[in-house]
Structure to design on (336 residues):
């Protein structure tokens, strides 16, 4: 999936996935640092700025990237763009933190526009409360929507007046606390343990941005029953195959992860460009490039779906467009 997702960005990057079974929850900064340093002590032999350039994912944010980058520098005695998602003081890119969430909304807005709809005045549910969810909330709100629910691994909050994003940022980005504490300062809001119930909240647009397989068939059916007309994926594969069948059977607009959440990896590539040039673009410049990339990704998905008689099936369009680019490159280079 990662290879085909990256091919949709139009940028010259490949793709792979990896990780560890280290759980950072409840660990001190010193414990997390020591793990990251140990991890990089083994990993550094296999990566390079012109070979494989890792980026963060679940459980790996700016803190962890910083620890690993520092260890790589010590081991290799060089300063290079070997990791993306770095801090701004040591080679990071403006808008990288916001990129996946913003990109998700840019793709979704193009999908909605192509079908005569928009975010304006719509009710949105965003699962998760990490970078993707927080900045999907931010951009969807800027586009005129109202986000009424967010979650973490312990449960979800619902605020009919709209989730106070500044409060969520304070809890999750600064204090590193559970989202349940939101209700302590917002008495009209409610917290419900468990995560799957978030999809019972009526909404027009669902942006699953927490983890894989978070929407199953039953949850998808509830979304449809409650009037949801669009689902776009901020997490990797958050909808089960059975849920996706429900979307298609009921005419729900569906933006698959390999297209809708490609903004993060696209901006990783933009960060690599800046590192290679020893130069930094402004937030607005990076955001504009990201917006253009997400528009291009939607056009590729839409065009491929129409060319192969599957108009409106953006999952098929993303699969076909991503595969064709990779296959044609392999053929041209004598790899098949």
């Amino acid at each position: 999936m990662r290879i085909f997702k990256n091919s949709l960005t139009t940028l010259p990057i490949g793709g792979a996935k990896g990780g560890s079974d280290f759980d950072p929850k409840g660990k001190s900064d010193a414990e997390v640092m020591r793990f990251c340093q140990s991890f990089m002590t083994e990993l550094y032999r296999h990566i390079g700025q012109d070979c494989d350039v890792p980026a963060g994912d679940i459980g790996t944010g700016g803190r962890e990237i910083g620890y690993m980058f520092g260890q790589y520098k010590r081991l290799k005695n060089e300063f290079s763009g070997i990791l993306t998602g770095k801090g701004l003081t040591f080679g990071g890119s403006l808008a990288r933190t916001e990129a996946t969430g913003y990109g998700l909304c840019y793709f979704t807005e193009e999908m909605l526009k192509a079908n005569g709809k928009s975010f304006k005045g719509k009710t949105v549910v965003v699962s998760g409360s990490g970078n993707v969810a927080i900045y999907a909330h931010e951009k969807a709100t800027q586009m005129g929507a109202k986000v009424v629910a967010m979650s973490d691994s312990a449960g979800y909050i619902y605020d009919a007046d709209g989730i106070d994003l500044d409060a969520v940022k304070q809890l999750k980005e600064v204090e590193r606390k559970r989202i349940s504490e939101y209700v302590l300062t917002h008495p009209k809001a409610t917290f419900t343990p468990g995560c799957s119930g978030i999809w019972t909240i009526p909404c027009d647009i669902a942006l699953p941005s927490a983890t894989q397989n978070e929407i199953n068939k039953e949850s998808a059916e509830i979304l449809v029953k409650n009037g949801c007309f669009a689902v776009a994926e901020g997490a990797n594969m958050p909808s089960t195959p059975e849920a996706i069948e429900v979307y298609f059977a009921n005419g729900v607009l569906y933006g698959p992860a390999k297209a809708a959440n490609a903004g993060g990896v696209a901006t990783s590539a933009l960060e690599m460009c800046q590192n290679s040039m020893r130069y930094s673009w402004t937030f607005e410049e990076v955001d504009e490039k990201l917006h253009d990339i997400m528009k291009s990704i939607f056009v590729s998905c839409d065009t491929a779906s129409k060319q192969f008689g599957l108009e409106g099936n953006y999952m098929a369009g993303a699969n076909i467009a991503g595969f064709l680019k990779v296959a044609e490159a392999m053929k041209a280079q004598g790899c098949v």
Summary: The two ends are 19 Å apart (CA to CA).
